[in-house]
Amino acid sequence: xxxxxxxxxxxxxxxxxxxxxxxxxxxxxxxxxxxxxxxxxxxxxxxxxxxxxxxxxxxxxxxxxxxxxxxxxxxxxxxxxxxxxxxxxxxxxxxxxxxxxxxxxxxxxxxxxxxxxxxxxxxxxxxxxxxxxxxxxxxxxxxxxxxxxxxxxxxxxxxxxxxxxxxxxxxxxxxxxxxxxxxxxxxxxxxxxxxxxxxxxxxxxxxxxxxxxxxxxxxxxxxxxxxxxxxxxxxxxxxxxxxxxxxxxxxxxxxxxxxxxxxxxxxxxxxxxxxxxxxxxxxx
Length: 284
Fold this sequence. Notes:
Blueprint: E1 12-17, E2 23-34, E3 40-46, H1 54-57, H2 65-86, E4 89-96, H3 102-113, E5 119-125, H4 130-136, E6 141-146, H5 155-165, E7 171-176, E8 193-199, H6 206-209, H7 211-216, E9 219-223, H8 235-245, E10 250-253, H9 262-276
Parallel strand pairs: 4-7, 4-8, 5-6, 5-7, 8-9, 9-10
Antiparallel strand pairs: 1-2, 1-6, 2-3
C-alpha cells in the first residue's frame, strides 16, 4: 500500500523481459481492519507465501505502516545500491508527471550515446509495454515493470527487474519511474541520483506545488523548450521556484526532438560517469 495516496501498489506486478519474452507475475491482495482504538490499517497477502503477521497483532496494537514500509524499502534499496556499486553500474532514477517527455528524452539519449556508453533501462508503467518497446527499438536492453494499480516503483521491484535485465559491468542503468510527481520521490531505489523531468507545458509552479520531488532530485531537466514560443511558461520563475525548494539543484533546458540543449545533459552525464565508473568515458 502506498503510504502517500493509499493505492494498492503491489496488487499485480508484472516484469517483462522484452528480449526473451519472459514474463514474471506477482499477485497480491489487500484488505483493511479497524483496530480497537479506531485506527484503520490495510495490509496485503501475496500468493508467494509472504504473509503479513498483522492478524496476530490485530487486537490492541497500532502499527505505523509508513515507517514499516519505508524502512523495508530502504533496506532493499541499500542492497540494490551495493549491487550497483559491486558491478560499477551508475543507476539514475528518472521521474516526472505523465507526458513530460521521459521516454522521448531517454530514447534520444540512448541513440546519441549508445556507441560511447552502454545503457540499459528498467521501464516502469502501470500497464502496457509501449514505452519499453520504443526503447528496445534503439537496440537497448530493457525490462518492463507493470505496477498494476501502483503509482511508483519500489526497491524490491528494481531488484527483481535487475535479475531479468542483467546489465553489463561498467555501464549505466536508467530507471524510468511511473509518471507521478508525488510518490516516486519517497522511495529510494538504490540509485546514484534522482532526475526530475518537467516540461514547459505543465506550468512553472510545479516545484513549489510538489516540493518533495524537486527537493529529492539532484537534476531538473526542463523539456520541450522548443514549444516556449507557443505556451505560457516563465522559465526563470520555474528555476527560481526549483532553487527555492532545493538550492543545489542543477537545471538543464532541452528539447529531445530538436536536440536543443542536450549537450548540457550529456555533459553532466559524462562527468558523473567519469566520477563513478573506473574508466573515464567521454561523451560527444
